[in-house]
Amino acid sequence: MTFKERAKELVAKMTLPEKLSQMRYDAPAIPRLGIPGYNWWNECLHGVARSGRATVFPQAIAMAASFDDELMETVADVIATEGRAKYNEYRKAGDTARYQGINFFAPNINIFRDPRWGRGHETYGEDPTLTAKLGTAFVNGLQGKGKYRKADATLKHYAVHSGPEDLRHTFDVAPSERDLNETYLWAFRYCIKHSDPSCVMGAYNRVYGEPCCGSPFLLEEKLRKEFGFSGYVVSDCGAICDFNENHKVTANAAESAALAVNSGCDLNCGNAYQWLKTSVALGLLSEETVTRAVERLFEARIRLGQFDDDCEYDSIPYSVIECPEHVALSRKVAQDSVVLLKNDGILPLDPKTNIAVIGPNADERSVLLANYAGTPTEYVTVLEGIREAAQGKVGYAPGCHSYKIQGADFDATTMPDAVIAAKAADVVVLVMGLNPSMEGEQGDAFNNSADGDKLSIELPESQKALYREIIALGKPVVFVNISGSAVVLADQDKACNAVVQCFYPGAQGGRALADVLYGKVSPSGRLPVTFYASDDDLPPFEDYSMENRTNRYFKGTPTYAFGHGLTYTEVTETWVDEETVTLSNVGNTDTAYSVLRYKITPEEKQLLGFKKTFLKAGQSVTLKVEDVTKF
Amino acid sequence: MTFKERAKELVAKMTLPEKLSQMRYDAPAIPRLGIPGYNWWNECLHGVARSGRATVFPQAIAMAASFDDELMETVADVIATEGRAKYNEYRKAGDTARYQGINFFAPNINIFRDPRWGRGHETYGEDPTLTAKLGTAFVNGLQGKGKYRKADATLKHYAVHSGPEDLRHTFDVAPSERDLNETYLWAFRYCIKHSDPSCVMGAYNRVYGEPCCGSPFLLEEKLRKEFGFSGYVVSDCGAICDFNENHKVTANAAESAALAVNSGCDLNCGNAYQWLKTSVALGLLSEETVTRAVERLFEARIRLGQFDDDCEYDSIPYSVIECPEHVALSRKVAQDSVVLLKNDGILPLDPKTNIAVIGPNADERSVLLANYAGTPTEYVTVLEGIREAAQGKVGYAPGCHSYKIQGADFDATTMPDAVIAAKAADVVVLVMGLNPSMEGEQGDAFNNSADGDKLSIELPESQKALYREIIALGKPVVFVNISGSAVVLADQDKACNAVVQCFYPGAQGGRALADVLYGKVSPSGRLPVTFYASDDDLPPFEDYSMENRTNRYFKGTPTYAFGHGLTYTEVTETWVDEETVTLSNVGNTDTAYSVLRYKITPEEKQLLGFKKTFLKAGQSVTLKVEDVTKF
pLDDT at residue A448 above 60? Predict the structure, then answer.
């Protein structure tokens, strides 16, 4: 029997109330049918998240900067391995709480449309092609190729979802048909065709007036009919109550729940589906439709091996969590995601250089983790990583608060101390940027300015003041920006000897960054987002038109373009034909290198594909870069 | 000429407005007289604070637990050395901002009357004798014995100040005469007699109806006439505006400022003294009285060497900051402040033991620093310290939030992970307690329950739930409580194999704790506060009567008494006479040991003195323990 047939048979034995109970994320046990309880709410954006110990990989946006879909697939496989190990152990103890299951609400393949969006760092950036390839790799790695599914992946948030966070429960987006298909839905369509994801999560917002989790257009017409999706759909957490409470498209929760299930939303993260009995009683929902949803859910659970004794993943031991191989992989991904934006030759640093590490992000643990993270047993901050690698003196001062202006309240007076440290050094490594309290999800980031979003992409004034003081000293400066999104680095590009972008780099981040700064590895990351020169370059945040946004459509000149990224050597690209390129490392340093293939017209600059490879010094390689936009 | 004479001469050249300007904490320069600007607001409670890099020693309450006044004097001398080094460097750059000066608002010698007081961890505990000896040692170490004063110490908060934090700007205390003299003022009197402190800071509250910074009774009658204080008095920050705004004992700020200066408060931390011109104009304050205040301030500045070229401390280089010797001292103090409360023989741990380190304080940096701290360049958390010392496996899980109940919001589900880690280990090291966001100063600690104070001395329910789960496993458990105050450990005393109290232990804290846990050093700390068995043992928080409070007067049976503290050996005390004792280390382990001398009557148990010494295994020493209450 197929998983689908087994699900049909099992669900046929359930009463209606039993069926309805299984559509909640915290599905209770049905002992008479041998069905254990199961909690569907689980996270693994960049490692098993919110469930205690786990290898914490770089944040999604950082992994995107590696421009390496093969590496992404390996990472996702490791995440699934750790997820299985935890699930096995939890199950032994009879635990079925949130964050203990084996389906996951990742990857986030929304388009990072505007750099002010707080959740942008959960995504793979602004480009549909990059997003689609990395999302596909993540799904394939997570779900595995076994007899059973290793873990369920969830494409989210479907669809047209990218802020503002404070409007997400009421917002209605009406993108042009072209933007809808070529930008907002494109990666979903690609991933579904190339990776068979188990699940899709509906977003909070509305599209063309329909709430995403209750949209026949999005869920039936597009997702299932056009894209061929055959899995289950889950609501974002609380999104269905929004129908009546915030979107006001239904009169009450029973109507909202019915609309969602009738539209094809099978599982409710939130509590709207406690009203499903009423929905059925009122004739708003048929048992056949309920059965369809529950069958999809049980097909998934059976396919995960939850009802069999021969699942190949049941023997994965807890000892794989943060094993040396996984931690080493996290470090490698972090290395590969560092983006060298400018270098006048100061990098790599001679290990014997006396340096001063300055800035509020230098010794800050939260920037390693970003959001939706697990708990590592070892954090290596930038300062700690540098100290481990350096052979010269390493001075240190935070120099300022991340965003509070010096002198407020009883804050420390720390800038002079930073100046002292800088003066005593030969080179200053200035480590600034954002942190997850300054950009994040509604209710999760506490910047108090925009509910998780940023009002400006400039660095905060507290950091700018410190920056000016340090620059005024005239010392050589390596500027390291740690953030999950583009910030304005126009001044840095002019005044600093080197500029390095480090997206939230995971628990081993400091070690990986030091590997790059001291030349243990050549940087090979590329920007997955455009670094605009100023706030003035940005259309209104609420505007979902792609006109003059992102590398593909932006008409202006950014400080650093999408795809920009230097190495410690020179690699020449010689295109033999449209898809064949010869890469030659003509320098003296080994490096990884991502080659990007574009279609450039007067209207747009479209990324068609990319491929990462490793080139020893002097080595040439000829390879094909597939146009992934044709399928 | 004496410093006093020079001050008189210099102040005589000032106009009245110039004099008044010098009574503000941010005293401006008077270029025509060659007087540079100076900011009097500087902190150094347990290391130079809020001024960037510094060696971060254990919090004051932890240093108190070492019961070692000689060590305290050494620490204070090192703090002054680092303060001078920073001051020298700041001065070179022309910086005169807050936290850059060389007078300090420390030590805090208030009596830790009630364990719920949020700022209690800034003190030396609940006992006047211990507080007096340690305060004296701190002042002597900080001020030095040179031609110039190395740094100015400030006894604070004078007087009768120990919460509640949320009432501090309005509270009026009327202690009995005995409590006033034997408890609240005693340490101030002792320190003034034995260490000549430069400064005393007036508290926010009132005593007998008079606001402390405007109290002729406290500042004239007691402080200067009875105790013989000859230095300057500073207000707590904002305390003088409280006179009219909150205490309502004056009608406006000009009256408040006049009352303060007339009472002998020479310097204003805050901005009330901007009204002094008005005070003088209204005839509320004479120029003679102003001159007296300003002369005291300039005597201090001149005595600090600010107007001379031959100050022996001007050559202290910046390189002393966090030099290896200072960091090693911080680690030693942290070792000596660990208090072993119970041990069934499980400690010291065999380094090869496979352990699980569990609890929200295990890998938490904030508990190393506590409040009023500098910025270290290296933090060693408990987990990191243990990992460095261990030769067996070290599992880790935080297991719960410090106080948020699991399951709220989108918090991580972490308890099962802790259970898994515990099950895999031979011994569980459970690291719980409080953190500086749960106990602290008004506006500074964000526990949202009591404005810095605690409502209960029980551990939060989130931690109790984890504790119950771990204990239920039946594994050997070493319970490490990290906090700045007493918490209820009654259950732990029954159920755990060992109980260790670690007050906020400074930047090297994790390393120091590991030194103790693995037996590199024997613990030798003693409790500077009573660990009550329950909230029910506490009189109302607002009650300033000492009846049935603290070791001296408490009638009940605490879980662990003030002065309690075990070692890894056995030391016998044989009293030869009232003040002479023979200490014999009859075990096989070297240890430091503090001997305490009490006077015990049916009414009270009074600490008369104490002395710490080092005893090799088998060694006996006879020494005298002075009765310091007689002077």
Answer: no
The alpha-helical segments, DSSP class H, found in A122-220 are: 128-143, 177-179, 186-195
Contact (CB, 8 A) for A478 and A410: no
Q: How would residue A389 be classed by pLDDT, with cut points 50, 70 and 90?
A: very high
Q: Given a cut of 60, is residue B627 above it in pLDDT?
A: yes
The CA distance from B375 to A478, in Å, is 23
The whole model's pTM is what?
0.93
**One-letter amino acid identity for A524?**
S
Cβ–Cβ under 8 Å, residues A55 and A47: yes
| Full DSSP string of A237-253 | TTTTHHIIIII-SSSSH
Contact at CB, B98 and A413, closer than 8 angstroms: yes
Query: Which stretches of B104-206 are DSSP H helices?
Result: 128-143, 177-179, 186-195
**Cβ-based neighbours of B360, under 8 Å, separated by 6 or more:** B398, B399, B400, B401, B402, B431, B432, B435, B462, B463
Q: How far is A164 from chain B (nearest CA, A)?
A: 20
A344 is catalytic: no
d(CA B415, CA B528): 33
Q: For residue A536, what pLDDT is reported? A: 97
Q: Mind listing the pLDDT tens digit for each residue in B231-261?
A: 999 999 999 999 999 999 999 999 999 999 9
Residue of chain B minimizing CA distance to A53: B397
A439 catalytic per annotation: yes
Q: Could you say which DSSP state residue A147 is in?
A: S
Residues of A in contact with B93 (CB under 8 A): 416, 419-420
For residue B593, what are its two tokens?
A: 């040991």
Any CB–CB contact under 8 A between A413 and chain B?
A: yes
- pLDDT at residue B448 is higher than 60: no
pLDDT band of A416, cuts 50, 70, 90: confident
| Gap between the Cα atoms of A196 and A155, Å rounded | 10
pLDDT at B171 over 90: yes
Active-site residue among A68, A82, A165, A236? A236
Dist CA A186 CA A129 (whole Å): 8
Four-point Cα dihedral B248, B252, B256, B257, nearest 10: 160
Dihedral angle, C-alpha A290, A295, A298, A304, nearest 10 °: -140
Name residues 427-486 of chain A within 8 A of B (Cβ): 443-444
B445: confidence class by pLDDT, cuts 50, 70, 90: low
Average pLDDT over chain B reads 96
CA distance B10 to chain A (A): 30
pLDDT for A414: 82
Per the CB < 8 Å rule, is B50 touching A412?
yes
Q: B287-303 and B3-12 are packed helices; what angle lies between their axes, rounded to 10 degrees? A: 130
- Residue A150: pLDDT over 80: yes
Nearest Cα neighbor of B591 from B611, B566, B573, B609 is B566
Query: Over 60: is that where the pLDDT of A396 sits?
Result: yes
CA distance B124 to A206: 60
Cβ-proximal residues to B136 (8 Å cutoff; 6+ apart), any chain: B69, B190, B191, B194, B195
Note which residues in 103-142 of chain B have CB less than 8 A from chain A: none
Interface test with B, best of A86, A98, A318, A417 (most B CBs within 10 A): A417
| Segment B499-512, tens digit of pLDDT | 999 999 999 999 99
Token representation of residue B622: 């006879």
CB contact residues (below 8 A), chain A span 304-363, against chain B = 318, 363
Q: Is B392 exposed, middle or buried (0-12, 13-18, 19+ CB in 10 A)?
A: middle
Residue A88, pLDDT above cutoff 70: yes
Q: Do B412 and A375 touch (CB under 8 A)?
A: yes
Name the nearest CA neighbour of A79 among A246, A313, A308, A266: A313
* Residue numbers of B annotated as active site: 236, 439
